[in-house]
Amino acid sequence: MKARFLPTLIAIGLSAALKAQVPDSVYTPNIYSAKLYLKGNPLAYPLLSLGSNEQMELEFDDLDGDVKNYSYTYQLCNADWTPVQVSTFDYIRGFAENHITDYRHSSLSLIGYTHYHAGLHCSPLLSGHPFHGAK
Q1: 116 near 32, Cβ under 8 Å?
Q2: Burial class (CB in 10 A: 0-12, 13-18, 19+), 113
Q3: Domain ranges of the chain
Q4: Residue 4: is its pLDDT beyond 80?
Q5: Which of 67, 113, 39, 100 shows the shortest CA–CA distance to 47?
Q6: 55 and 120 in contact (C-beta within 8 Å)?
Q7: Residues in CB range of 88: below 8 A, 6 or more apart
Q8: d(Cα 103, Cα 63) in Å, to the nearest integer?
Q9: What's the angle, vertex CA 45, arms to CA 22 and CA 34, rounded to 5?
Q10: Which pTM was predicted?
Q11: Is the pLDDT assigned to residue 50 strictly greater than 80?
Q12: Rounded distance, CA 104 to CA 118, Å?
């Protein structure tokens, strides 16, 4: 009886530990295949160098299949993913909120969905690390 519960407890503990280390989340059940990457390189980590002209791309699928008015914004975070309480104008150059207007409907698939794509055009002025622990 004890041996049966041990794998369950290990799985629960492991999933809790992994969840604490992974800040990425999808908050609505109709959104799938969210990807954020360096422009032109979908296998690259979504990291920008300060002062560079690098850009990122965002893609995701909405399984509802209709067109929605999506937008994105930026949030400066500490190394532990806690938000830093400063104005967006202090850490990015560009617009704080941008609408996603590039989308296409699925074709030749059993499930109808809408694929969204956005090129993220902003230049970060600060990294999150120097603010670690700041209030």
Answers
A1: no
A2: buried
A3: 24-131
A4: no
A5: 39
A6: yes
A7: 73, 74, 76, 96
A8: 13
A9: 65
A10: 0.70
A11: no
A12: 12
